[in-house]
Amino acid sequence: MGLLLSRSMEDNLKKQQEFMLHNSRLQMERQILMQNQMRERQMAMQIAWSREFLKYFGSFFAVATVGLTAGAIKRKNPGMLAPIIPLSFIFVYQMDSAYGTLIYRMRGEAENIMDNEHDRLDLPHQTPTFESVEKARRAKSSLSSFLDK
């Protein structure tokens, strides 16, 4: 009778462990999906911001280019065209950011850094651990209790 009962309890324990493992796996998959959806939304907002900024900067660039060109012709001073050069670099960068391949080049470079230069990504004093966080928490709580006295 006791052997039958202990076998039944072992089976229940094993089923419960499998259920908990399955449940934690589902929870982690949901967290990963949610974080990825949030990342996608943030990137979409950033691209949308770049496109909106491009509209305003493009208008400014066009007006500035026409005005500087007209001024250079009217005053016969080609030096007035000089601001067009740096403004055009900004304009082209913004176009690349909004509609071009900048994001793909950045992703490729990030992957290259992660693959070949991973040591650049290390945090000072390495990644925090539970023990290091607890040690800091205890030190802070003992310091605050000392100061309260």
TrEMBL record:
GO terms for cellular component: plasma membrane. PANTHER family: PLASMINOGEN RECEPTOR (KT). The chain crosses the membrane at residues 53-73, 79-104. It comes from the Eukaryota. GO terms for biological process: positive regulation of plasminogen activation. The keyword Transmembrane applies. The keyword NAD does not apply. It comes from Amphilophus citrinellus (Midas cichlid). This is Plasminogen receptor, C-terminal lysine transmembrane protein. InterPro entries: Plg-R(KT). Pfam families: DUF2368. Keywords: Membrane, Transmembrane, Transmembrane helix. The lineage of its organism: Eukaryota, Metazoa, Chordata, Craniata, Vertebrata.
